[in-house]
Amino acid sequence: MHAYEVNFDGLVGPTHNYAGLSYGNVASQANLKQSSNPKEAAKQGLRKMKSLADQGFQQAVLPPLQRPDLNFLRQIGFTGSDAQVLSKAARQAPQMLAAAYSASSMWTANAATVSPSADTADGRVHFTAANLNAKVHRSVEHPVTSRILAAIFEDPEFFAHHQALPAVSQFGDEGAANHTRFCADYGAPGVEFFVYGKVAFDAGAAKPHRYPARQTKEASEAIARLHGLDEGGVVYAQQRPETIDSGVFHNDVIAVGNREVLFYHERALVDTERVLSELDQKLQGADLKAVMVPEQAVSLEDAVGSYLFNSQLLSRSDGGMTLVVPGECREVASVSAYLDQLLGMDNPIDRIEAFDLKQSMKNGGGPACLRLRVVLNAAELAAVKSTVIMDDALFERLNHWVDAHYRDRLSQNDLADPQLLQESLSALDELTHILQLDSVYPFQR
Ligand code: SUG
């Protein structure tokens, strides 16, 4: 059956800030204590969504989570009224306050892993929310993420939802950022490609030394089981530990795939030859087209600095593919030169489009981080809550909403301002009316 790739982009929440919370993510660490601009961040994301929707790509939006996460602050021992909880956290544990205020749910590539119905044993689309337990501020995302996904993909005839994996490092799961699906056609059975950073239950296995590996092989295997994937349609690979130590904290910072194309850096994977041949052999109805970017053309450092691989690779209706890159790719000489050459090479990528996503990029999130891909056939698409599909009216409404509720400057000191709580909750309350997703947030229950 004909199917589409629908991109669900995270709407940047009103408390977007730079708190240096992600050790191993070089941008997050480098921009600690800079002021952010939440209004600009949300608008940059909306412009990307609207532009892609206007070009005929299927585009939808996922709302941000409730921030501050008061339940989290209460869980770690702050008591009293909401205002007291916040002021005690500001005094005693400013980093926990920053975690409670993080707008990190904007990076919806980490929201969940999604398997299309063509790949699963019961013929439904399967979702597993990511436990994100490598980072405190992200580990608290999944309960409400699950609730939002269940509200948007509601019909159990089409959609199956699994709770996040056990919250221990051995099951560290970062969602779709480490998962890619190859196929001849979206509606045909595909190969689901899981890339992990370490094997938890193998003390002798290679792992990074400097920065943490967030995804384990055990987590990837659990998801393949939960989703009912056939072994013949699954490939596992390890990300090279040296890349993690260079700041590649997710596989989507070093590779991107779509349909039969894998666009990747020479140093991305352990045992590349085995992985490519297994992918090619398991891919039905097409030959794998692996586009390797050599270290000589783009160093690992420039790949991380520009976020070249945190791109979206989108299939157009005319048969070509567009690579959606962050604007930074045009600012790094080696990467810009490579992109010009790429267009002349023998591969399906024949268009490049750059977006200004600087606000998100300064926390380590490019175009690919900002979207969760969900492959849906026509019947499944019709069952999705239609109020989240991007169109002219929604774009306009969300821009007005951002203008009405967002600040254009937020520093770490501002997180102690009790007014920010009220601003954030009233914005989110109105958002749930716009998207008709009432009562998904804890404060509405
Ligand atoms: O988990 N940054 C996110 C960026 C996630 C990018 N996603 C993908 N690669 N798919 C992270 O490291 C920084 C927050 C701060 O420091 O304020 C942060 O959470």
Offer a quick outline of the entry.
The protein has 445 residues and is an alpha/beta fold. The protein contains 16 helices and 15 strands.
* Ligands, ions, cofactors: N~2~-(3-carboxypropanoyl)-L-arginine
Strand line-up across the major sheet: 2-1-15
The portion of residues forming beta strands comes to 15-25%
Number of helices: 16
What level of helicity do the residues show? Answer: 25-40%
Low-confidence stretches: none
Shape: globular
Mean of the pLDDT scores?
97
Based on CA atoms alone, the radius of gyration comes out at 21 Å
N/C terminus separation: 40 Å
Give the beta-strand count: 15
Description:
This protein is an alpha/beta fold and about 450 residues long. It is about 35% helix and about 20% strand. It is built from 16 helices and 15 strands. The chain has helices at about 25-30, 40-55, 70-75, 80-90, 95-100, 135-140, 140-150, 215-225, 240-245, 270-280, 300-305, 335-345, 360, 380-385, 390-405, 420-435, and strands at about 5-10, 60, 110-115, 125-130, 160, 180, 190-195, 235-240, 255-260, 260-265, 290-295, 310-315, 320-325, 350-355, 370-375. The strands form five sheets. A three-stranded mixed sheet has the order 2-1-15. A three-stranded mixed sheet has the order 3-4-5. The radius of gyration is 21 Å and the shape is globular. Bound molecules: N~2~-(3-carboxypropanoyl)-L-arginine (SUG). N~2~-(3-carboxypropanoyl)-L-arginine binds near residues 253 and 363.
